[in-house]
Each structure stands twice: as C-alpha cells, then as structure tokens.
C-alpha cells in the first residue's frame, strides 16, 4: 500500500488535544534496525500512559507487537510511483476498476446520491479511490497494524508522523472501534479506503449509523472518504481534473502525481 500525502500530518499538540490526549515530552529514541525496538516500546508505553491512554488499552494494544520487517522493506521500496501514467494505470487495473465501478454506482445509487448531497463529492472519485485502495473492499491488508505503526513510529525516517498515527490508533482501540490485533496494510492503513489512524480520528464518519466508525463498513468508508475530500477543499459542483477546482483535494489524498491523475481519470470515466 501507499502513503497518502493528505495523511501526512505533523504530530502536534493540536492533534493530540483533538484526540483528547495530553502532550507528553518524548524521550524514546528512534532507531534504524530492530535492535532498539523493545526498549523503545517500553519507553513509549510510559509516555502513552502520561498522555492519557489507559493501562488496559496499552496492555492490550502492545501484547502482540513485533518489529515489522516487511513494513520497513516496503517503506523503502515504493516503486510503483516511478512508473509512467500509462504503466501505473495498467498496473492498478484501471479498466477493470472503471467497469466494476460503473456497476457499483448503479447498484448503490441511493448511497452515492446521499453522499454527494451531503459532502458535494460525486460518485466517480469515491469509487476510483475505493477500487484502487482495496479492490472495492475485497482486500484491505494482512499486516498486524499495531506492529506496523509502532515500527514506523520507532523508525527514524518519519518517526514524528507515525508517532501521531500510533497515538491515534491507541485512541481507536480505547474507544473499541479497532481490535488490538486488527490487520490492515503495511503502513497501518485501515479499511476499504485505507485511512491512516489519525485520519479516522479526524475525518471518520459513522455512515451506517450503528454508533461506531468502522472503515470495514462500505458506508463508513465511503462517507469518511467524502468527508476527507471536503476537508481538503472539495467544492460542490467543481471539476476534479488536473487544473480544475477539486483536483487540489485529490492531491490531498496522495502525494504521487500518477496516483492523483489516476483517481481523476478513473473517476471521470465512472461519472460519464
């Protein structure tokens, strides 16, 4: 899976306060291999407790955490963004996403009409993201999410960013919205449209109105994605191709130009 630029938020006092947590002074030292990971985890647990995470949540969340070597390997080798646009579209199965997406748009017309009415986002880009991220919910990842996020928080390359994600994940576990042993994508992305934990906290929506936010639910995932795009500047009725009003919001979803253009192209074909 890939890291979304819209999900690249600095670990800040404002973010933690929005999560209902205090802002601890970080003293755990990052590292670039597995050697220091166990000591880092023990130090982080103390800091999480001081930040307001319950002892029960900490105990449950870290019970099965291991250094995620596969996550580090994938983080160092995100090669698909180096492809040309045509190569990227082929690799992602764009034609299949368009074909299936048109059928899903018809089959779920009431849901997509309601989302557009509420958030101003038409079906096309939502379906494009849904298809590209998880094959319309068929595969959302098989990596131990707590291990992945904790490993990336420990890793020096983007420690501050993933520390925020780790605190957000602990909050989701504390709320009962996520299992400590939940499995997702290699960088900790969650659900059918692959939100990182801090974006579940910030933009998650209870689309099926069952009292919790679960991005394994199609309604929750699509409503949260629409809310994310609106939160990144989506304007009702505006175009979303490169150079148009809402392409900026699509840029918020992913840092890679080929990915942004793919969402716009696939979405336009579905919305025809």
TrEMBL record:
Region forming the signal peptide: 1-27
Superkingdom, natural source: Bacteria
Task: Provide the alphabetized UniProt keywords.
Answer: Signal
User: Recorded GO terms, molecular function?
Assistant: peptidoglycan lytic transglycosylase activity
Q: Which SUPFAM superfamilies match?
A: Lysozyme-like
> Where do the Transglycosylase SLT domain residues begin and end?
37-240
What Gene Ontology biological process does one annotation of this record name?
A: peptidoglycan catabolic process
Question: What InterPro entries is this protein classified in?
Answer: Lysozyme-like_dom_sf, MltB-like, SLT_2
Pfam family membership, one: SLT_2
Q: Per its record, how is this protein called by name?
A: Membrane-bound lytic murein transglycosylase B
Provenance organism: Hoeflea phototrophica (strain DSM 17068 / NCIMB 14078 / DFL-43)
Which taxonomic lineage is given here?
A: Bacteria, Pseudomonadati, Pseudomonadota, Alphaproteobacteria, Hyphomicrobiales
């Amino acid at each position: 899976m890939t890291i979304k630029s819209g999900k690249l938020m600095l670990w800040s006092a404002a973010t933690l306060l929005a999560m209902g947590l205090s802002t601890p002074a970080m003293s755990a030292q990052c590292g670039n291999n597995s050697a220091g990971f166990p000591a880092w985890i023990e130090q982080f647990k103390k800091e999480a407790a001081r930040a307001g995470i319950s002892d029960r949540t900490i105990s449950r969340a870290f019970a099965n955490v291991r250094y995620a070597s596969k996550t580090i390997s994938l983080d160092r080798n995100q090669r698909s963004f180096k492809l040309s646009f045509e190569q990227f579209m082929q690799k992602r199965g764009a034609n299949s996403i368009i074909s299936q997406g048109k059928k899903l748009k018809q089959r779920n017309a009431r849901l997509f009409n309601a989302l557009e009415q509420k958030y101003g986002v038409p079906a096309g880009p939502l379906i494009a993201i849904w298809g590209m991220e998880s094959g319309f919910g068929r595969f959302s990842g098989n990596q131990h999410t707590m291990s992945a996020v904790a490993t990336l928080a420990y890793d020096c390359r983007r420690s501050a960013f993933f520390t925020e994600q780790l605190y957000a994940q602990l909050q989701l576990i504390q709320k009962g919205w996520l299992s400590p042993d939940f499995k997702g994508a290699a960088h900790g992305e969650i659900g059918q449209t692959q939100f990182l934990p801090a974006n579940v906290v910030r933009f998650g929506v209870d689309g099926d109105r069952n009292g919790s936010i679960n991005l394994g639910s199609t309604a929750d995932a699509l409503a949260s994605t629409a809310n994310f795009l609106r939160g990144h500047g989506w304007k009702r009725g505006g175009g979303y191709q490169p150079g148009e009003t809402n392409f900026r919001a699509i840029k918020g979803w992913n840092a890679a130009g080929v990915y942004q253009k793919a969402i716009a192209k696939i979405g336009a074909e579905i919305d025809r």
